[in-house]
């Protein structure tokens, strides 16, 4: 009973999603969380260069295109995070000697871009029909000046926050797949944020279920 | 009874070389005579990269050690490698620090320059940290511009330092909107044997802690700058950020945390570098990064944070 | 310059604070005066340059062979990797290739920060290093393959090419690459009638600067040679020098290189002893392993014979289940 109450308390930004938006790619999704929007296309398994091939698993490539279009070091970092997340979810050993490309296009960033991109990537992967161990959900959090933890902060809250977190959980045991923080914070705040996000990730999984039900005849 | 039966059956089945080697390595671990060889100070051929078993079947080699609660180089799961620190070995840099975590060698050199502050932030100086993974430190890196991996490490290190508020950028400003210090910290990895991020943070903090700035006089009318190198003020620092990294080995029932992983362990855990890095400064967390490797439950996450905290005390 | 988006960049217009110190404004003559004065003091001690070299092998765990060389304040670390197939090549090459890369650390020079991307000097040094060590390696033994040699200059205090060649030679021997002889190198800066063997940075810099008004000898010479064979592998001269002067310099440098050999030999011998010990441990372990293997094999044989086939198949199935 308390859990249900908890769930009611944590509200996520309104999510809207459309699958199969791109006709040429194997899987694609556009997701808006509040005002933040990302578009992702997934292609694969494809042939790749011999030097990248691995006999154990598929080679996963993640490309992150910013709105401005100019690459920078922090973008490589975002790519790395999404890549590591997808890699742990995809059953790579089923597609040896091949490559999978995930291309992310940032459309609007009003806070929580990365969690939006991760969720969108999950939906696009579902759409592409690649075998996955589990689905994953990302939730963003912020700690404000007074030490309160805010779930899914707005743009203004992100700007004023002392610390920001992004967490990605798997759907099986709600274990942490990926997590990273910005700013300085106390241990208690971190744990509170982690707990809240873990609870909130259920909402994202429910959302996935709804979307997949809606598109089940297509997928 | 069934268990014993199983064992016998298994023994008979071991005809392939790989299987025999597994049996052997198990045997070795159980032999007390060899216990000494498994401390990491004693580099033994059995832990070296030339071990035939490791070459033939690295995954089985690794798991057969992990199953026995020991790491291939003889450390316990929560044991660090020896750390060596050598400060100001390089005369050409303003300050420098050489750090060794076991075999991993990282060297950080700082350079001071002067520039006008940014228009949107006229009271702040600049701190530019870059991590260079030069091709000589590992066969995995090729010459050329920094790889994606190098950029990720660069970003992680600079985020940790910036988030920790280790130095106040306002201290680097000399005259508002006119002149400020630019602090270039170049960290070079000379030998990459895992856990580069921790070593980088140690090298960076050590060289920043020993840094002193020459006094500068700026004439606002003639815009003339004079630097007095004999009169130096040491840079104010806040706390001491310490990063602790773990590799997470995805075991069937429970993931295993390996403190201060070396390259082989990082590879086996499937991440690009260490999987979780926890940084503390002044009793506050200034960065938790988890990527790749196995999944973590709440308790394990807490355990990692606790272990990292104990290190800072 | 295009912006390097793979690194963090500082502001475009930043300059080293040393530009604003009184030392920076010193003229050539003043610097020369300082140098000669310092040198007069130094001459009294008559130091032996070859003794001032520190060398060590096996510094980098991940490399096949590696070496660290320190000459005066110059510090160079060099690593050599396993031969690999030459990338992007269609034709078969009978001789193996050596790929060299010399890089300065951004903080290696005392005057200003070096840009992290390789510049012209890096490339020139890489080429010079390749030319110097190529004749020493038995390249015919690994056709169609390439050996990577990476040298990294951690601190530059003059004669960095000589240090890089020494380090590369040692790293190649450490990696057990077949070579004709030990390679040693030394350098010299010449300024008028003064000769600075193994110059430091300021001596080198002054010798390189040309004085248009006066027609005097000035320049830097780096010479590398295979001492046992008495062959010179490379001779690099920058600056303008008279023939007599060059010949005299070469004689001195040759002597220097020869003097360096016992030093290098010592390091190599130490390395060999270490490797022999390692080999012994390896052999012993292999023997132990074999004994255990035999023991186990006999045990299995026995138990195979003793137990009935039925029992075996039972245990076999229980294993499967």
UniProtKB/TrEMBL annotation, chain A:
Keywords: Exosome, Nucleus, rRNA processing. The keyword rRNA processing applies. It comes from the Eukaryota. It comes from Papilio xuthus. PANTHER family: EXOSOME COMPLEX COMPONENT, EXOSOME COMPLEX COMPONENT RRP46. InterPro entries: ExoRNase_PH_dom1, ExoRNase_PH_dom2, ExoRNase_PH_dom2_sf, PNPase/RNase_PH_dom_sf, Ribosomal_Su5_D2-typ_SF, RNase_PH. Pfam families: RNase_PH, RNase_PH_C. GO terms for molecular function: RNA binding. GO terms for cellular component: cytoplasmic exosome (RNase complex); nuclear exosome (RNase complex); nucleolus. One of its GO terms (biological process) is nuclear mRNA surveillance. It is found in: Nucleus. Gene3D superfamilies: GHMP Kinase, N-terminal domain. Residues 12-130, 135-199 form the Exoribonuclease phosphorolytic domain. This is Exosome complex component RRP46. The lineage of its organism: Eukaryota, Metazoa, Ecdysozoa, Arthropoda, Hexapoda. Belongs to the RNase PH family. The keyword rRNA processing applies.
UniProtKB/TrEMBL annotation, chain B:
GO terms for cellular component: cytoplasmic exosome (RNase complex); nuclear exosome (RNase complex); nucleolus. One of its GO terms (molecular function) is mRNA 3'-UTR AU-rich region binding. Keywords: Cytoplasm, Exosome, Nucleus, RNA-binding, rRNA processing. The keyword rRNA processing applies. The keyword RNA-binding applies. PANTHER family: EXOSOME COMPLEX COMPONENT RRP43 (PTHR11097:SF9), EXOSOME COMPLEX EXONUCLEASE RIBOSOMAL RNA PROCESSING PROTEIN (PTHR11097). This is Ribosomal RNA-processing protein 43. It comes from Papilio xuthus.
TrEMBL record, chain C:
GO terms for biological process: nuclear mRNA surveillance; poly(A)-dependent snoRNA 3'-end processing; rRNA catabolic process; rRNA processing; U4 snRNA 3'-end processing. SUPFAM superfamilies: Ribonuclease PH domain 2-like (SSF55666), Ribosomal protein S5 domain 2-like (SSF54211). GO terms for molecular function: RNA binding. Pfam families: RNase_PH (PF01138). Keywords: Cytoplasm, Exosome, Nucleus, RNA-binding, rRNA processing. Coiled coil: none annotated. Transmembrane segments: none annotated. InterPro entries: ExoRNase_PH_dom1, ExoRNase_PH_dom2_sf, PNPase/RNase_PH_dom_sf, Ribosomal_Su5_D2-typ_SF, RNase_PH. It is found in: Cytoplasm; Nucleus. GO terms for cellular component: cytoplasmic exosome (RNase complex); nuclear exosome (RNase complex); nucleolus. Residues 51-178 form the Exoribonuclease phosphorolytic domain. Gene3D superfamilies: GHMP Kinase, N-terminal domain. Belongs to the RNase PH family. This is Exosome complex component MTR3.
